[in-house]
Write a structure and sequence with these properties.
13 helices, 3-stranded antiparallel beta sheet, Arc Repressor Mutant, subunit A, 10 strands, Enolase-like, domain 1
């Protein structure tokens, strides 16, 4: 935690805390008379005005030209987040909703994470997002082939970090289910514990010559599809929800501001790059701490894990006038549930014939 500015005495801190909290709640510049009625400091409006003037000189407040009130600066929000805001306990009803909805959808990690982003948007009324990182170093847990019709199978690749990918493969020959079982076992045996990048750079054609001669014809169809699927798994997926929420916020009453915001967050490659390069753990960046095109925004992210390993990141983006205490409590609880709920277990490969 950052140290409090030594020039800020207890009275100034209480006044600043009250201004930030009031502005977050009302979106209206805060005046001295408003504070004198709400603060339990037995101070006159004139004394509060003097303190507010000092806070403005110190860079914690700004003074909109059309109002006698003050609004917090980025510096004030940062101090508020680091030192002044109280912890917000998530209501039991919200906790139960998160637990119920995430645990009921805990079969496929990506779908669960997408569902978590939707929940986050619903509970914060902000634009939410979730990402999965580049998986070049993700290790394969097991491989399975599932029958569809006479010449089509589904290739399932499951990684140790919980990533599950299914892709349909059209074979150039008919197959029997025992062949699929054998292929699943042999490929799992050969690639289990290997990273995706290692498999992509290996000569896996030898696998079908040495270990799967009886499946060589089928292997001719499987190998290209298997490699293509692995390449797709390297892509970072970005899920977003709640775009319409911004239109209820005063900051985006200006249509041009709303368009600029949406243009930035819907630029998938650019926004994904911002999210991937953020600090790990719970990270809150405000105003100019973000890139120039996000300098009017606050961005809160947290990591989620599978089996103790960080596998992705979720969070919200919105105006600097954000209910930081409530939003962080929701994000923390959702990520904690993702961490606890999702476990990956490999199927029993059985004994070799």
């Amino acid at each position: 935690m950052k140290g409090t500015n030594m020039d800020l005495n207890e009275r100034k801190l209480k006044i600043l805390q009250a201004i930030v909290a009031d502005f977050i709640s009302t979106s209206e510049p805060v005046g001295s008379r408003t504070l004198s009625k709400r603060l339990d400091l037995d101070l006159s409006p004139a004394t509060i005005r003097n303190e507010m003037s000092d806070l403005e000189d110190m860079g914690y407040l700004t003074h909109p030209h059309t109002s006698a009130g003050r609004v917090p600066s980025d510096k004030a929000y940062r101090l508020y987040v680091d030192q002044l805001m109280s912890a917000s306990d998530l209501p039991d009803q919200n906790k139960q909703e998160i637990e119920a909805k995430l645990s009921s959808d805990a079969e496929e990690l990506d779908q669960t994470v997408e569902h978590a982003a939707h929940l986050l948007s619903e509970m914060t009324n902000l634009v939410s997002f979730a990402i999965t990182p580049n998986r070049s170093e993700s290790k394969i847990n097991y491989i399975n082939f599932l029958p569809v019709d006479e010449e089509t199978v589904v290739l399932m690749i499951v990684c140790e970090d919980g990533k599950v990918t299914n892709s349909a493969i059209k074979l150039n020959c008919k197959y029997q289910e025992d062949q699929l079982t054998l292929m699943s076992k042999v490929m799992t045996h050969n690639f289990k514990g290997k990273t995706i990048s290692a498999v992509l750079t290996a000569n896996i054609a030898d696998l079908f010559e040495n270990d799967m001669k009886a499946l060589s014809e089928m292997g001719g169809s499987v190998v290209p599809s298997f490699m293509k699927t692995l390449e797709k798994m390297l892509n970072v997926d970005l899920y977003m929800d709640g775009y319409s929420n911004i239109f209820a916020l005063p900051e985006y009453n200006d249509v041009n501001k709303a368009k600029d915001f949406l243009s930035t967050v819907t630029n998938k490659d650019q926004f994904t790059n911002v999210l991937v390069n953020r600090d790990q753990g719970l990270s809150i960046t405000i105003g100019d701490e973000n890139s120039p095109d996000l300098s009017d925004c606050a961005l809160i992210t947290a990591d989620y894990k599978v089996n103790g390993k960080m596998v992705g990141r979720l969070g919200v983006i919105g105006p600097k006038r954000m209910k930081y205490d409530e939003v962080t409590s929701v994000i923390k609880y959702i990520t904690e549930n993702l961490n606890q709920t999702f476990e990956i277990e490999a199927p029993d490969e059985g004994e070799d014939e």
